Amino acid sequence: MVKVLARLDEEDKRSRLYLHSSTAAEVKRTLERVFIENQLDALRAEFPAILENDRTDDMARLFELLRRVNGFSCLRDTFELYVQAVGVAALQAVAKQAVNDPKLYVETILHVLNKYRDMVNGSLQGDPGFLEALQKGCRKFINENAVCAEALTPTKSPELLARYTDAILRKSARTPPENELERLLDDIMEIFTYVEDKDVFQTFYGKALAKRLIHGTSASEDLEGTMIGKLKGACGFEFTSKLQRMFGDVSVSKDKAEIFRKGDGKAVSFDFTPLVLATGAWPLQSPTTDFLAPADLHACAALFSTFYEREFAGRRLKWLHQLSKGELRGAGYASSKVGYVFQASLYQMGVLLLFNEHKQLSLADIQASTRLADAVLVNTIKVLMKTKVMTRVDAGEEINKDTTVCANNNFKSKRTRVLINIPVGDDTPATVKTIEEDRLLQIQAAIVRIMKMRKQLQHTQLVTETIAMVQNRFRPKIQSIKRSIDILIEKEYLERVADQKDVYSYIA
Q1: Average pLDDT estimate for 109-136
Q2: What is the pLDDT of residue 35?
Q3: Coil, strand or helix: which one is 405?
Q4: Nearest-angstrom CA–CA distance, 323 and 345
Q5: I want to staple 355 with a disulfide (CB 3.0 to 4.6 A). Which of 7, 292, 407, 452 is the partner?
Q6: If 0-12 CB within 10 Å is exposed, 13-18 middle and 19+ buried, where does residue 375 land?
Q7: What is d(CA 133, CA 496) in angstroms, rounded to the nearest whole number?
């Protein structure tokens, strides 16, 4: 290829120097026919070996030769299949680890994506056809791979991408500089464009964002806004409307909390920071247990409820104790003269504060004072015992209502601020179920919009138009579309046309 390109260049220079332009053009065509067109099969056969061995210089030469005769159209398909195969193999090699490691999963995808994007932009001169082939190949291996098979769910890819995004945007000791974070967000958005089930990413990302905002663990509010802006640019306003409302709620809550502190809350002797969150915007679950908050906190919450309901007539507050947390100062420990500050969940605080008045308590006594459900109480006690803030008085391994516990006066820690781990359950199955229910509603809404406009439609055409309407958010299953049609018939939005079983009519 080096010699052919050199010879073509030499002949082109000679033709321009010594021949008429019409003759020079004919000579050029003849040379390209002899050197390139007659060797197309051999040149194309070499393409997979060039790809496999990363021969970028040969790739550039091959592209330059084939570009002269427009002979690389079939190579685009080869390139697409090769990129897909490399991506599938790369994820196959890390499937068992990556199914629980979002960072490994995303970095494996980025390694393949960056490598072949650089090849397209370099050796292949940014050719639009090869760029489209790269995008098709990436889309296939990102949405269907061994990691999804290992997780037994086709939606694992957007879930892992959302969890990786959460890790990037969450404050930690290893948070990279802000300019590095912006580059990582660009990488995330590049993968996001290939994800087909964007609603899965939206759901998991929304849940993670809610936790970061509630617990104040965002690495940067500016970057949070940047990420939402990128999602809005890619998917539109509707995709990010709830995410933006979350930020609005947090901002308004800060203002209202300040007004409360200067007015009704003047008498409150501790720092109280309420967040008022709109039910429709936040992906939060109701508490699974009753809870009687400590007396001081209960009185403060009642004061704020009165203040808020006076400010916004007709609105009612529902306290989500399972998401609340605070700090307690513990004194009287032999290991520390200044004591410790414990960062705990509200349930843990409720249990610990009981020991200001009691040396030891049975779980039955604690439950009577806190009203916590059995499972929640046992989990709370287990965490407090594991952290060694609390110890067991009686003998035995099983924890039940007869178990007696006490505060551990011999508690010791190198840190004065002690984080008591808050148990986090796996809510993935519940989230996946919510996604499926939301999808069914979206499919039904799409069908109603289509039928309202078309009035009467054949089954196959209705399915095709429904897929086209929702595919920007997720890949609908044919079975789900059929089920949605049956539901709409039962609800009398649609009816089957008499004597034509596969034709539907809209009922106004």
Answers
A1: 92
A2: 64
A3: strand
A4: 8
A5: 407
A6: exposed
A7: 42
